[in-house]
Amino acid sequence: MIYLDNAATTPLFPEVLNELNENYRVHFYNPSSPSRESKRLLEEIQSIKIDMMKLLGLKVSDKSNIFFTSGATESNNWIIRHYLLKAKSVLYFKGDHPSLVNSIESTDATKKLFSFNPYSIDSSKFIESLSEEIELIALSSVNNQTGQILSEEIFRLLKDKFPTALWVIDHVQGVGKVDISFLNEVDAIVFAAHKMGGPKGVGALFLKNAEHLTSFFKGGDQENGLRPGTINYPLIKGFYSAFKLSLKEKMDDELKRKSCVEEFLKAFHGRSDLIEFPFKNHSPYILFGLVKKIPADVFMRHLEQKNIIISTTSACSSKIKAYNPSLEALGIGEKWHKHVFRISLFFNTDFENLKVLEKAINEVLLELKFLMK
Quick one: which of 164, 214, 230, 231 could link to 31 by a disulfide (CB 3.0–4.6 Å)? Predict the structure, then answer.
């Protein structure tokens, strides 16, 4: 089976799987207990937080902190709800992950919400035209559906125009995959382990200033009472290992991956009547396409019969079968919403598999020719 739905979830790095098994077997202690071994695990978790900040080039201070959560959805909800206690105006993108968008749009009606497409050629004009003072900006470093990357240019325009605004960056699809130079300038960053070869059920929230952070849970005094609940050392250690491996793999494979992806895309140039990859400036790990004359779910199922797994959209939007507001925000007209597909790679994706996929796509298009209008 060739698995190409890694933006939904990735396989565990073998080293992480072995480490998880070992830690659940040996280091199962509750880090909040008073035993010597428990205290050692808690100390190690504190060291892990500092090392993760350093590896990303983030400033380590008395005010900064990383909170380990159940995943990116919890992290996005937590920090957006906290910042919206004071922020009265928000700039965001309706085409981002639902945990970001819905956290913002579920706020009370007194907040002023402004959505824009940061990848559009008109985004600079939109920013210049904004007369409202924006107090919170929440965007993804890499869009989970299209792989488009938030540019340095757009970040600078926003930073210059709204210098006091709080910044949240959802970096779930970016770790080890794209270079984001401005991470050390934002206030909050969100991560998910299972998108980088780590285990499901653990994510992280980095805060440049964690003072006065609001807790929305009631329970014990873990994380100074801010995030109560049993601290899961094996998951955190697995996350940390995957995090380090992701940063290493990026350095090892970056140029070759880009070249192989460009070669794959080139094979479909001039065939936009049948299949198209419309977006530029995207991560080499996410390829968003349109299959023009047949429904994407039919296209996907036929590839699956050839033992190739792709997706028709992001996992969080897979239950939407008709009009998709996220796709509309990305500039995809409603008539194409049933025709989108996503190919997503990981560090362990064999580059030869792209050639196999290219051949399989051509075969499927030929096999389904009778359905084309």
Answer: 231
